[in-house]
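note to self: the first set is below, dont mix up w the second
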Amino acid sequence: MRQPIATASSGPLRRLVVLVALVACIVGGSGISSPVADAASRQIAMGALSAPLNKRTTYDAFVRLTGRAPAIWALWVGWGDPLNHDLPSLTLLNHMRSKGTVPLIIWQPVISKDPRSARFRFDTIARGDHDAYIRSFGAQLARYGGPVILRFAHEFEGYWFPWRIGLPGNTAATFTEAWRHIWDILRGGPAPLAPNARFLWSPHGCDCAERLTPLWPGDGYVDYIGMSVYNWASLRHMPWRTMARLMRARMAGIADLPKKPIIVAETASTHRGGNKAQWIRDGYEMLYSRWPRVVGVLYTNVDMGTQGVAGHTEDWRLVLPRGGAALTAYKQLLRKERFRGRIR
């Protein structure tokens, strides 16, 4: 999501650049089948992203709120964060796994305490400067063993992150080179370091249907295509827009790319200016009926107004509006067989 970079004065978000973003066949040469969420029966895996991140209490609270464990749950890792550069704890991951939940790691090449640092530029990643860290992280993925979705350098074509295309060292060419280099370390060769890693190529996606072909790493280097789909409406003085309208532009932007499974990595709607419950209910049903490539959707269940990011008060939580209609609509979807997909 388009947001300014969090600063060191952002309270509990001082280390969490990722919270700024809350407001998202056969793999060539690997011999690993591209994972889908029960594609034969056309089920969508329902996931979520909630704060504070990487906490079992947050995960368990969401399970209680909705009455069902999510199929996908977003966690975050900052490459240069001294307290959070490793895979989240195996205790948390195994707890989630016991409930059928696959972690989606928002994997940010940034020093969170100094988010404008250029240390993790795409050209330095591509030439191997950070291989020791990537290999260490891959070894942690292997120790966990279950499927993990890696959302590396998400929304890379936007202007709001320090890894964005257009900064020194960050070009379309160096981005794709860095992506392939990471893939080669984790999934390449006859004995891949982390065969359980699934790669989610996740641009923001543009309402203008901008083509993203120059930023594509290659068919064999991507398992899923991702996107961020938000109805800002009154929050940004925009008209109320349905998920169908937002998705049409994003799908046009990837029309020239291989037909990979799609995960809507972030989605939410404001409750001001329209019917949020209907937006959720109709939007998810539309994703199922109109775009069968969509295998997963993560709802951003976050109140940004409590997260210490200056100038941001949007509250995406399912508990709004206060009457509970949006939460009820979401729970009704969960009870339907077509929204019981799982990521393999």
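second set (the one i keep forgetting abt)
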Amino acid sequence: MAKRKFKNIKDFGNPRKSERRKYLETMMADMGLTSLSELSPEERRRWLKAARPSPMVEKKLREMGYSIHSNRNKRSLGSKERSGNILGLHKVANLSAASADVTVALREFISLLKRKTIHDISKFQRIISSEILQDKDFDSNKLKAELETFLADNEEDVVFLKFYIENLVQKASKYNSEYLKSTGVFDRADYGTLEEIMLSDQNLEIKIGHSDRDKVALIQQLLESLGYTLQIYGVDGKFESETENAVILFQQQNSLPVTGTVNAQTFNKLITDPKPLPVESRREHKRMLRQEQRGQGARSDAPRYHGNLQNIDLVYSGVDLDNASSMLSEYLVILDETASELGGRIKITSAFRDSYSQARIMYNNYKSRGVGSSRANSYLSRLYVRFPRISEIVNIYSGSRNKEDKIKAVEEIVETSWPKGGHRGGKSIDIRFGNKVKDILIETQNLATVDILQESDHFHVTIKSLNPGGIPSGHVRRFS
């Protein structure tokens, strides 16, 4: 069956279409999409849900004097004139989807707790109450720490629950962002005065975890206006990895020192004569962000890492650095310079992976230890203990299906269940053991926050931030 393409926005007033259909098409045109097939299955379900209004959206429509079930409205809900009101409805739909996500994550989390912990759930409810989730000063790190303390106090296995904690915190943070945007908290800030204050501060330093949400929101609005899109969280007043990546991209485009931190020099450039992200780069950037959310590689004509990396080799032709995150791109420059100073070479064996590649590599590692053997089962279970449905993946790989069917079945699990971090987020690389390699990696921890995991035949390296100090220099985890 051929996939139906959406028509140009000028045709959205067609009275033969339902208002629901026209609303959906308007939303898609606003986001630069032409077909539902461009979206992942999960995203597609959310778009269709947004066009099938919840009671909150129905109420909003009635207040506006519109019905989505008839074509007798004086103006079409999907017309150009309605673009401003559509944005309001879009916010409601996004908030509804975020609320559903955090509810599912919460239920899944509670289902894993011991019965005696659930009986003493009142403290847990205070930790993640609606007041906390809707607070302008919501702090995801604080929420994570309080959850871990609560679990430790109740003798729960914090290590086993680590992924579920992170998943719940991520969904809570997303809900907080959507709630703040829907209420327009940062639309009411006095940015004129704030801008003057920040311009006069020669010691300005705004980076991940910054506590002044209005200052962060001002920076986010400036970045968005210049085309450095914040696709996932938007202007929410929280300086996290998405904002840091946008700052890095801005610094790269404007020939500034690339740190991911907004200092006086970077902020002054944001205000006075900034270079916007070029239109073509902007389209590619948005496309790559959409692809990243789907866990798929977005190819570009030129590599996204910068400089002539004289001391770094790609061991295989399939090593994908084109889809490295902005932060990893800059870390590669640091890594190259450090290797040069210490007289060593870096050999990268793996970088970005889409869901299929992740499933294929897992299968090859599993098979090399003996399909169905306790050694293979234990290896995979221990290496990915923090990820969901790993026991299901082990069962698939130990089963009787052919290789390709196994990989495709696990690809679906990875795509729909696993977080978009590490290799799949373009933030990790694997580096082969070699002379001075460990010393080089440890030295880079003095220049950035770098997580190093030593596995059986390589180092798994993940860049967390371009600011050092998050992980002490010399800290190398081991997988045995």
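remember for set 2: Residues 201 and 470 are 25 Å apart (CA to CA).
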